[in-house]
TrEMBL record:
InterPro entries: E3A/B/C-like (IPR044611), HECT_dom (IPR000569), Hect_E3_ubiquitin_ligase (IPR035983). The lineage of its organism: Eukaryota, Metazoa, Chordata, Craniata, Vertebrata. One of its GO terms (biological process) is protein polyubiquitination. Gene3D superfamilies: Hect, E3 ligase catalytic domain (3.30.2160.10), Hect, E3 ligase catalytic domains (3.90.1750.10). This is Probable E3 ubiquitin-protein ligase HECTD2.
Length: 659
């Protein structure tokens, strides 16, 4: 076999339609070298096959190493070939080049550029090229860090379409290696166990490139591989936990490919195992002391008074810290009833409504951003902030969706760090924040600071500001220096960036540190698990609050009926009306019936939504039992009447619509 040089010619690059942007020295480190890995026999067979196919092409197909247009087909045939034929021939030729290039250790930037070009060959969509493709991926995966920096820089310069195609091709490669439609197409798994790790490492480069672009080239959810939902994820998780940074592969090393639904399964099973372990230990302790076991010891039992909801809940959770990872059961004092899930949800809804009420003073609601943020008021006891953190952790463990609206940076702070540090002096809940994070909470203030940054006049003379901020606390204006002696340091054109950064850091980190630290420790007292390291901040928000993506057709398919059949006229009217609602009314309906306008991670089916027949006058409005996700609907005789009553009901419900 004639060995081809590692660097394609300019003509070869033009055939691929690729434009390469060389990074500056500031962006990357100098190139290094990687070790040479001999190809397996199957690679040689595929290379020979490619050569044989090429040798049967019309005369002139191969002319050494320079691949001009005339090298693909003689001029006469080019006029007869379709565009698709030409693209196919180009890709075939590139596959042959690939088979030759993957044998060569990259020694120059041009060699690395060849890898980058070959990675984009659409012919690798075909399973018949997977052996060659796998070797290309391994060569890229085993490059030194400096070379990876170059590749990441080039990858982030790709168009959105090209970038997405690369991601989809790699995800398909992994899926088909896990569950091949035709197993005989691939070598035995024992001979190619490195295929999936190599593809995952290349995907990690793409994920890094995507995260460096603002906004990202594609949503982070496009990296999810739904095929992984069908493998033993707990085995992957245990492998990851047991072997840590060893060379044993686990998909948990690359959490960006695991869907939020799969991560929820991992977290739930991990929490169940912890619950079972704690409950078993409690049972063993009882028996060893010759005491009669009580079934209540297997649960986190909360007994609270409605009139003292916050204080009773705080006292109960403080006394039962060791039981936080047990299954939650709630009892309201003086009320008969067995908690089958409804009382637990009601407890969450009532407690959240009371704590987040503006008069309570713990959180400030910002109308412009429609979210809550921590009050910066100083106090002697921050235990109630810890209570909110515990509530969020219990909600995740008990699969309860909370109607809480925190900005995205809150969840970023909640994962800073994802594992509680052993040293209690280590700061927690502190993360790097920008003016974009501030805009999520206080858009008007963020806009004003942006204006300051772009102001073309004399900042010192026109703004007359210093490195000092003022806040109102209980009617008293207090001042805080952003840096030592800040009240005497003027903000100028030269230091305004520092001022904006310090101001943002003060508002989102320093001024609320004690409040957020209590909140952080409360959440992690329940959710202390390595599984949190698998999550992005956006995914934590979805686990706590649900997804904003509504699919009312899915809700219709999963709805249960009591007193009605899905073919009844009233039910048909109902779904005709609801499916025709604009998004804001659909959200109001969901909030009216479930207490939240968001959807659990498992989708609409996890809501267990029920429509019951209300044998009352058709002049009555619909009634909702949010604790059971139940809508009681009178048998309205016309679609117009049903629509009118439903809109009135969902638009004027008070609080959480509790019945």
């Amino acid at each position: 076999m004639q060995r081809c040089r590692a660097t394609p010619s300019t003509e070869e690059m033009n055939l691929l339609g690729c434009q390469i942007t060389t990074p500056s020295a500031k962006d990357v480190s100098p190139l290094g070298h990687t070790s040479f890995t001999p190809p397996h026999n199957e690679t040689r067979r595929h290379m020979n096959k490619s050569q044989n196919q090429t040798s049967r092409s019309p005369k002139g197909t191969q002319k050494g190493n320079n691949m001009e247009q005339s090298d693909i087909q003689p001029p006469g045939l080019l006029e007869l070939a379709t565009k698709e034929d030409l693209e196919k021939m180009k890709s075939d030729r590139i596959c042959q080049i690939t088979a030759e290039i993957v044998l060569i250790v990259p020694r120059t930037k041009d060699d690395l550029r060849a890898y980058f070009i070959l990675l984009q060959n659409p012919q690798f969509n075909n399973t018949s090229t997977y052996v060659i493709y796998a070797h290309l991926l391994r060569q890229i995966a085993t490059l030194v860090e400096a070379d990876h920096h170059f590749l990441v820089h080039w990858l982030k310069k790709l168009s959105q379409k090209s970038f997405k195609q690369l991601v989809e091709r790699l995800l398909q490669f992994i899926s088909l290696r896990l569950f091949p439609a035709k197993p005989e197409e691939f070598p035995p798994i024992t001979k190619c166990s490195w295929w999936i790790p190599s593809a995952s490492k290349v995907l990690a480069l793409l994920n890094t490139a995507n995260n460096l672009v603002h906004p990202p080239l594609i949503p982070y959810t496009d990296f999810y591989n739904s095929t992984l939902d069908h493998i033993d994820l707990m085995e992957e998780y245990h492998t990851w936990q047991s072997f840590g940074n060893s060379h044993r592969f686990s998909f948990c090393q690359y959490p960006f490919v695991i869907s939020i639904a799969a991560k929820k399964i991992i977290i739930q099973r991990d929490s169940e195992q912890q619950m079972i372990s704690i409950a078993r230990q409690s049972l063993v302790d009882k028996v060893s002391r010759r005491q009669r076991p009580d079934m209540n010891m297997l649960f986190l039992n909360m007994k609270v008074r409605r009139t003292h909801l916050v204080s009773d809940s705080l006292d109960e959770l403080t006394r039962k810290r060791a039981d936080l990872k047990k299954k939650l059961k709630v009892t309201f004092v003086g009320e008969a009833g067995l908690d089958m899930g409804g009382l637990t949800k009601e407890w969450f809804l009532l407690l959240i409504r009371q704590i987040f009420h503006p008069d309570y003073g713990m959180f400030a609601y910002h109308k412009d951003s429609h979210c809550h943020w921590f009050s910066s008021f100083k106090c002697d006891n921050y235990s109630e902030f810890r209570l909110v953190g515990i509530l969020m952790g219990l909600a995740v463990y008990n699969s309860i969706t909370l109607d809480i609206r925190f900005p995205p940076c809150c969840y970023k702070k909640l994962l800073s760090p994802p594992i509680v540090p052993s040293d209690q002096n280590t700061p927690v809940g502190i993360c790097s924040v920008t003016i974009d994070d501030l805009c999520q909470i206080m858009p008007e203030l963020a806009h004003g600071l942006s204006e300051l940054l772009s102001y073309e006049g004399n900042v010192e003379e026109d703004f007359y500001s210093t490195f000092q901020v003022f806040q109102e606390e209980f009617g008293i204006i207090k001042s805080y220096n952003l840096k030592p002696g800040g009240d005497k340091i003027p903000v100028t054109n030269q230091n305004r960036k520092e001022y904006v950064q310090l101001y943002t850091d003060f508002l989102l980190n320093k001024s609320i540190y004690k409040q957020f630290a209590a909140f952080y420790y409360g959440f992690h007292s329940v959710c202390a698990s390595n599984a949190l390291m698998l999550l992005r901040p956006e995914e934590v928000e979805i686990l706590v609050c649900g997804s904003p993506e509504l699919d009312m057709h899915a809700l219709q398919r999963s709805t249960q009926y009591d007193g009605y059949a899905k073919t009844d006229l009233t039910i048909r009217y109902f779904w005709d009306v609801v499916l025709g609602f604009p998004l804001d009314l659909q959200k109001k309906l969901l909030h009216f019936t479930t207490g939240s306008d968001r959807v659990p991670v498992g989708g609409m089916a996890d809501l267990n939504f029920k429509i019951s027949k209300n044998e009352t006058s058709t002049n009555w409005l619909p009634v909702a039992h949010t604790c059971f996700n139940q809508l009681c609907l009178p048998p309205y005789k016309s679609k117009k009447d049903l629509k009118q009553k439903l809109i009135i009901g969902i638009s004027n419900s008070e609080g959480f619509g509790l019945e």
